[in-house]
Amino acid sequence: MKIVTLFFPKASIGTYLVAMAVAIALPIFAFVALLLLQLEDNQRSTLKRETAQDALALSRIIDRQLQDMATTLRLLSSSPELENGDLASFHERTETALRNNSLYVLAVDRTGHQLLNTRRPFGTPLGQMANIAALDAAMKSGRIEASDVFRGKTSGDWVYNVTLPRADDPVAALIITQDAGDLGKLVTTQGLAPGWSAAVIDQSGHVVVAAGPAALEPGTPFDPRILPALSFARGVFEDRTILPHMLLGYAQIPGWSWKTVIWGPVAQASILSTWRFLIIGGVALVLVAVLAAYAVARQVRTTIRDIADMAKRMGDGHIVSPVETSVIEANQVAIALSNASFDRSQTEDRLRFVMHELVHRTKNLLTLAQAMMRQLAKQADSVETFQAAVADRLDGLGRSIELLTSEQWGGVSLRRVVDIHLQAFPQSREQIEIAGEDFVLKPDAVQNLGLALHELATNSVKYGALSVPQGRVRFEWRDVREADKPDALLRFTWEERGGPPVVEPSRTGFGTTVIKAHAAAAFRGTVEIDFLPEGLSWVLTAQRATLERD
């Protein structure tokens, strides 16, 4: 109570309305601010994902180029001229095949001495190749490798090699070399946002080729502060100190020692103006809301006082007339209070009637329960048997009472009565077929028919068709008309088939009394029970008027 008083102290309705206006406005502002932050975060996440994908796409392009060069080396390595040691013919054939490409082939021995170079005519004196380290690495690994970018001795330009080691002599390795500038034709910033750059980086961290406004030349060392962070197969690098307001995506070229990187400014629309508009508009909205709440509070306060005065006079026992206010709902309350002052006596009479009905129905239920226990006590051979029998019957009676209570003792549809009592036997529900046109039963008929149904189903589960999986029961009702009885009649039929052979019991138990004598007396009708070999047959014929609610 102290906590409630702390948060909701005594105050006028005007104070609470103003507080409500502020309490509504502030969460809205906070939510909008959260949405703006979430939007900014989503934009950045999308940009990161796209940056990593662009770097991966570039790596695939470079990978195709390197793979093409590796395939060319494999084909050249198996040429007959090379196998026969005819280097002159091999030079001529290779030069002709690669004339339209920007690729050149070198054949070197184990020391790195060039045996031929398609950049020069065959027979031209050639020295050692420029990148001995790349040759040694390829010879050691025994697989095709791409070198770092370096200055070529023959061309004088920045080039790179793809080396195929061979176990034969004198040609120990075949090398395809290409100018870095020619590879640059594959590296483009087309499709990237303005201000973005792209580059290919070799194993030592030098730029092989680059494109974009960064204008990095081949052989330029890439930022050494960034390189250690590019340790995964692909990803995104962010650092507000190294790359302020920028983003970098990278991807390792599969099977090679190179990486591709793209980087550029984070192009997000500024939301400063949106924040400014939100703050100014929010303050103005709160002021308007406070003024409106104060004006409404004055009107509501007057209305509440008028309604409170009506309620006070009504509480004193007076008949009150409705007051006229500017609030429609308050007028409705005033009319309701006025009507309530006239209806008070009728309500008291109705309460007395309900109490009388409650006493009457309670007596009937107690009488029925007493009769039930007397009958069961005569047949029970032990306290446990008596308790189980009473509990089972009371459960069936309780289902009927629960149904009637849910309908305020105004009657229940026949279908619901059947369903609620058969729910007590869920394992046998699919074995029972129900047929008949639904109608609403009287309260007494709900109890009595429910008792009969519960006994029939209980007996069938214990001894009859529902005691075996193949057994079937059909429960139906239909209108009949007899010549000597002009009133409408109903005939209920319970037929069992497919169960164990039926034997008529030697003595009459409580169950038989309920489904025969009690049912016939309750509905002022007749009950026929046949213990046929193929299954029990129970037929109740009664006047429809004793069952159906008017």
TrEMBL record:
<dbReference type="GO" id="GO:0004673">
    <property type="term" value="F:protein histidine kinase activity"/>
</dbReference>
<dbReference type="InterPro" id="IPR011102">
    <property type="entry name" value="Sig_transdc_His_kinase_HWE"/>
</dbReference>
<feature type="domain" description="Signal transduction histidine kinase HWE region">
    <location>
        <begin position="357"/>
        <end position="438"/>
    </location>
</feature>
<keyword id="KW-0472">Membrane</keyword>
<keyword id="KW-0808">Transferase</keyword>
<keyword id="KW-1133">Transmembrane helix</keyword>
<feature type="transmembrane region" description="Helical">
    <location>
        <begin position="16"/>
        <end position="39"/>
    </location>
</feature>
<dbReference type="InterPro" id="IPR036890">
    <property type="entry name" value="HATPase_C_sf"/>
</dbReference>
<keyword id="KW-0597">Phosphoprotein</keyword>
<dbReference type="Pfam" id="PF07536">
    <property type="entry name" value="HWE_HK"/>
</dbReference>
<keyword id="KW-0067">ATP-binding</keyword>
<keyword id="KW-0418">Kinase</keyword>
<feature type="transmembrane region" description="Helical">
    <location>
        <begin position="277"/>
        <end position="297"/>
    </location>
</feature>
<protein>
    <recommendedName>
        <fullName>histidine kinase</fullName>
        <ecNumber>2.7.13.3</ecNumber>
    </recommendedName>
</protein>
<keyword id="KW-0547">Nucleotide-binding</keyword>
<dbReference type="GO" id="GO:0005524">
    <property type="term" value="F:ATP binding"/>
</dbReference>
<keyword id="KW-0812">Transmembrane</keyword>
